[in-house]
Each structure stands twice: as structure tokens, then as C-alpha cells.
């Protein structure tokens, strides 16, 4: 089956079926509901986390009815990217949803703005005190999963300026280049208070 340029390799109705499909297909991206049978609690999330431990960086976009700070932090904890967390009531815009799916498949991180707001509000300390207001804006858009081009467009300045702000953010947060980590993801984790 194909939809919006994607080939759908499996559609499942339970956590065990999801686990089997992820192992069998190792898809380019998976769209997973947090709550799935048999428990109808956080089965989809737990299967997704287990699959990412087994296959690091496996791209997964999780959909949830409510903002659960713990879920968002768990998803971001490995720091490898290729992860998304969107609220179900925000996926009615097909173009935005398809864009989010593509960004996660490409290794990006996509977080619903409401999730970001609740995570930041719940963080008592401010590890980002050294950032300028403009750097905070850039980092917030990074947390939403925006590319440098998208950030430049939204803030009305050049991609080169975004690159300079991003380099400053990494430097101020003490995030150095490494083959083992994704600096953008680590910066987003710091922003969300989970790093």
C-alpha cells in the first residue's frame, strides 16, 4: 500500500505486533501511537524504546493524546535523533504531518510545540542562561525539528546566520563535535532540561 509517496509495509494493532513488524521490516520511519493493546497504557512507547535499543537510531514518530513529559524525555534520552513526538490533535494538517514524517525519517527530531513548552516550564533550573534571546529562538526552532533553512525563513535571516547562532549555542552549552553523538539533539536535550 502507498500513501503520500510512502510505501506502508505494515499496519498493526497491538504492541507485540508492532515489535514484530519493527524487527522484520526495520522501516525507514514508523508512526506509533503511545497507547496500544494489550495494556492500552504506554505499550507503543515501550515497544518503540525497546526497538531503538535493539536498532539504535531507528526512526520513530510517536503520537500521543496528551503531553507526557516523561515520554518525551525517554524518547530523546539516547541523543541519536530520528525521533518525533506529536500530539494527535495537531496531525490534521496533512502537509505538516508529512513534513514531520520526512524529517524524522531523515534523522531529525520533531517535537510538538506544546510538548516543548511543557518540558521547558517543568524545568526548574535554566542551563541556557548564557544564551542570547536570538540563540534561544534558534534552539527552540531546532527543538521543533526545523532545519537551518526553515529556521532562517521563520526568523527572517540567512542560513549562514543560523549556522553562526548554532555554533554559539554548541559552544555555550559545552557540546563539542563527536562521531558518537548528534550535537543538535544534545542541544535540544539541554533545552528540554533532560541533558
TrEMBL record:
It comes from the Bacteria. It comes from Amycolatopsis camponoti. This is Two-component transcriptional response regulator. Residues 124-194 form the HTH luxR-type domain. The keyword Ligase does not apply. SMART domains: HTH_LUXR. The modification 4-aspartylphosphate is found at residue 33. Signal peptide: none annotated. It holds the Pfam family GerE. The lineage of its organism: Bacteria, Bacillati, Actinomycetota, Actinomycetes, Pseudonocardiales. The keyword Phosphoprotein applies. Transmembrane segments: none annotated. One of its GO terms (molecular function) is DNA binding. One of its GO terms (biological process) is regulation of DNA-templated transcription. Gene3D superfamilies: 3.40.50.2300. Keywords: DNA-binding, Phosphoprotein, Transcription, Transcription regulation. Residues 1-103 form the Response regulatory domain.
Amino acid at each position: 500500500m502507498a500513501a503520500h509517496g510512502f510505501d506502508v509495509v505494515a499496519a498493526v494493532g497491538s504492541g507485540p505486533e508492532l515489535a514484530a513488524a519493527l524487527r522484520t521490516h526495520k522501516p525507514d520511519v514508523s508512526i506509533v501511537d503511545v497507547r496500544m493493546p494489550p495494556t492500552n497504557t504506554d505499550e507503543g512507547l515501550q515497544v518503540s524504546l525497546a526497538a531503538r535499543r535493539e536498532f539504535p537510531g531507528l526512526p520513530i514518530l510517536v503520537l500521543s493524546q496528551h503531553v507526557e513529559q516523561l515520554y518525551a524525555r525517554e524518547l530523546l534520552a539516547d541523543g541519536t535523533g530520528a525521533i518525533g513526538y506529536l500530539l494527535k490533535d495537531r496531525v490534521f494538517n496533512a502537509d505538516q504531518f508529512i513534513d514531520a514524517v520526512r524529517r524524522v525519517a531523515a534523522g531529525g527530531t520533531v517535537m510538538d510545540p506544546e510538548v516543548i513548552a511543557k518540558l521547558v516550564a517543568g524545568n526548574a533550573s535554566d542551563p541556557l542562561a548564557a544564551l542570547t534571546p536570538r540563540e534561544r529562538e534558534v534552539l527552540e526552532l531546532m527543538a521543533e525539528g526545523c532545519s537551518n533553512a526553515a529556521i532562517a525563513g521563520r526568523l527572517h535571516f540567512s542560513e549562514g546566520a543560523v549556522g553562526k547562532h548554532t555554533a554559539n549555542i554548541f559552544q555555550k552549552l559545552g557540546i563539542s563535535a563527536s562521531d558518537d553523538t548528534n550535537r543538535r539533539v544534545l542541544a535540544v536535550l539541554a533545552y528540554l532540561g533532560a541533558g
